[in-house]
Design brief:
Strand order of the largest sheet: 3-2-1-4-5-6-9
Strand content: 15-25%
CATH topology of the domain at 8-161 and 192-215: Rossmann fold
Number of helices: 10
Oligomer: single chain
Largest sheet: 7 strands, parallel
CATH architecture of the domain at 8-161 and 192-215: 3-Layer(aba) Sandwich
Helix content: 40-55%
Number of strands: 11
Shape: globular
Length: 304
């Protein structure tokens, strides 16, 4: 906040899982919220894995443009004090790579922000990046972090340990009757709910720490998370383990067919090998989240 009223924040990535929660969190914290989207209608629709539908009252301004096409963003940064970005590939199917989206799109935002003399920039990267720098997604994220640190902007980096939206895939598999795990499932993790992470992003923006790691309240193995999902859906646990050697072979094959999906598959396999645990900044437990998904699945079509 400023002496003359609320700070003006630009939310980029507002139709994604975290982005939708970030719009709500910054608005509730008293900010004047400008949202960047290439498709305004998607703002008002619920996203996957409990990402909320937004209303016009949840934001002050909507700017329609494509972050990959800077020529469509004229005037985007006018009167903006701070930029928040969670732009990146999740489940988009445009055939683009991490370099093209996670790096170049955020680079475009950095260039626009510095040219407009915006005060600062909050960027969402990943926890434990130093251990997985061989991955294309990590390289893209950390190139953004490096360029932000050289930009002259005030910079805040948020590093989540994983998203509950990713855990939603475990729920879907349990609901179908069988879960597939890469590796033996013994790697530990502490993913965080989008609403909790959005709150951390606001607190980090307003705080003094330059980088903040954020995990949820639970620390469990991938196998324990799968068993929890089966328990919530009320089905006997059936888990199939995909050996790492086999998964690596599949990654190579996928990479020959598609660079984008090969990079994504390599990230998924690597996530099945390493731990991802950080400070417990979230409040919602994974069990509560699975129960929320289960309750939503039982609603009649069109109910909310």
């Amino acid at each position: 906040m400023t002496e003359n009223g609320p700070q003006r924040v630009l939310i980029a990535g507002a139709t994604g899982y975290l982005g939708k929660f970030a719009v709500l969190a910054f608005k509730r914290a008293g900010y004047h919220v400008r949202v960047l989207t290439r498709d305004e209608d998607r703002l008002y629709l619920p996203g996957p894995f409990t990402a909320p539908a937004l209303s016009r009252e949840d934001m002050d301004e909507v700017f329609v443009g494509k972050v990959a096409e800077p020529e469509t963003l004229k005037g985007l940064m006018v009167d903006i004090d701070w930029v928040f970005s969670s732009v990146g590939i999740s489940r988009q199917r445009d055939g683009l790579t991490f370099e093209q989206v996670d790096y170049q799109c955020n680079r475009n935002l950095i260039d626009l922000a510095t040219a407009a003399e915006v005060k600062g920039f909050t960027y969402v990267s990943m926890q434990g990046a130093e251990n997985i720098m061989q991955l294309a997604i990590t390289q893209a994220h950390e190139k953004v972090v490096a360029e932000l640190q050289q930009s002259g902007l005030q910079v805040r980096i948020v590093r989540p340990c994983g998203y509950f939206s990713d855990m939603g895939a475990l729920y879907d598999m349990a609901k179908s009757g069988r879960a597939y795990l890469v590796g033996d499932g013994s790697n530990k993790m502490s993913p965080i709910h989008g609403a909790d992470l959005a709150r951390v992003c606001v607190e980090t923006t307003e705080g003094e720490k330059l980088e903040v790691e954020a995990g949820g309240p639970d620390i469990m193995t991938q196998r324990e998370a799968a068993l929890l999902a089966f328990d919530v859906v009320g089905k006997p646990a059936k888990i199939t383990v995909i050996p790492i050697w086999l998964a690596r072979g599949l990654v190579q094959l996928i990479g020959l067919l598609s660079t984008q999906f090969g990079d994504l598959a390599e990230f998924i396999v690597t996530a099945g090998e390493i731990d991802g645990v950080g400070p417990p900044r979230g409040k919602m437990t994974l069990q509560e989240y699975f129960m929320e998904l289960h309750a939503a699945a039982d609603l009649p079509t069109g109910a909310s």
